[in-house]
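Milestone 3.1: sequence recovery, worked example.
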């Protein structure tokens, strides 16, 4: 989770706003710097919970024409299914649905799991899986992250 000092936070925000890409997965990006609202704003979301722990869940591609997800089908991944607070300005590329087994009040909640966005001139990409390295043995999961990293770096 770590802490982001004010100078570091401003340096990162300035770099991303000027066009430096920011991309990542899972807690390394969305559960980092909990005390930094500016960082969370850049990322476009913040982890809240994973009520089921590590489970197998469906990732549904909702933007099949986007270059990051084009040609890929929905798939299953075994990871922590992240419940998040998300920015409504995110361009959501894939979602998941909670089954409510471990938290009945979120049954059928559809949650973004992949998005891209801009922070001024900077491209930002996020995918929520990645708790275990085997998540990237799923070809679609690995390809989305690869494409997302490349998109953010342009």
């Amino acid at each position: 989770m770590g802490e982001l000092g004010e100078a570091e936070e401003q340096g990162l925000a300035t770099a991303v706003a000027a066009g430096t890409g920011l991309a990542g997965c899972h807690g390394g990006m969305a559960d980092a710097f909990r005390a930094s609202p500016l960082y969370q704003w850049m990322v476009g979301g913040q982890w809240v919970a994973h009520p089921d722990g590590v489970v197998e869940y469906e990732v549904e591609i909702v933007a099949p024409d986007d270059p990051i997800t084009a040609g890929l089908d929905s798939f299953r991944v075994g990871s922590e299914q992240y419940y998040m607070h998300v920015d409504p300005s995110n361009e959501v590329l894939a979602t998941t649905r909670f089954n409510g087994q471990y938290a009945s009040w979120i049954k059928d909640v559809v949650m973004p799991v992949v998005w891209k966005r801009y922070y001024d001139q900077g491209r930002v990409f996020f995918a929520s899986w990645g708790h275990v390295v085997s998540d990237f043995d799923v070809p679609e999961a690995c390809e989305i992250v690869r494409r997302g990293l490349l998109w953010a770096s342009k």
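The helical segments are 6-17, 26-30, 37-43, 139-153. The beta strands are 22-25, 45-49, 54-61, 75-80, 83-86, 91-97, 110-119, 122-127.
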